[in-house]
Amino acid sequence: MARIDYIDDPNAPAINAVVPSVVAIVQDDLGRVLMIHKTDNDRWALPGGGHELGESIADTVIREVKEETGYDVEVEAITGTYTNPKHVMQYDDGEVRQQFSIAFRARLTGGERQTSSESDEVEWLTPEQIADLDLHPSMRLRLEHALSRSSGPFIG
């Protein structure tokens, strides 16, 4: 499903949904970050997605990372919450979501790299390599907050 992101755009369509979602910041022993190239918006991103009925938010992280990358993870900590009502995502099925994302640090526990219908590339990248990628500004912010390892999660 295709997606258009709007931030601080007065011409953004009216919001008709809020869906809690997650992203996972997973680093290997070399400090590289697990990243995916998304098929819905043709940008690089942290693995993640929408919360489903009947699962805990930690289960959402584990499921989404597995689905999009093939890797197994264990959730360690929340690094931030992101609920900017001026960040709107319009999907081609008519849904227009307000951003509602929780970012988590997670630890790799197993699995093997694989792509999915949502991710056509799965890579371990250094922060320097990520700096040159096409990431949505909101994704870059989540990554920046997580890698800074400040004293507590970002709330915004």
| Stretches with pLDDT under 50, minimum 5 residues | none
CATH domain class: Alpha Beta
CATH topology: Nucleoside Triphosphate Pyrophosphohydrolase
The coarse silhouette is globular
Strand order of the largest sheet: 6-3-10-7-12
Biggest sheet architecture: 5 strands, mixed
Count of extended strands: 12
What is the number of helices?
Answer: 3
Content-based structural category? alpha/beta
User: In angstroms, what separates the terminal alpha carbons?
Assistant: 27 Å
CATH architecture: Alpha-Beta Complex
Mean pLDDT: 94
Our Rg estimate from Cα atoms comes to: 15 Å
Name the CATH homologous superfamily.
Answer: Nucleoside Triphosphate Pyrophosphohydrolase
Number of domains: 1
Please indicate the percent range of residues in DSSP E strands (runs of 2 or more): 35-45%
Percentage of residues in helical conformation: 10-25%
Question: How would you describe this protein?
Answer:
The chain has 156 residues and is α/β, with parallel strands linked by helices. The chain is 19% helix and 41% strand. It has helices spanning 57-69, 127-131, 137-148; strands at residues 3-7, 17-18, 21-26, 33-38, 44-45, 48-50, 71-82, 87-91, 96-98, 101-111, 119-125, 154-155. A five-stranded mixed β-sheet has the order 6-3-10-7-12, sandwiched between helices. It has a four-stranded mixed β-sheet with strand order 1-8-9-2, with no helix packed on it. The model has no long low-confidence stretch (mean pLDDT 94).
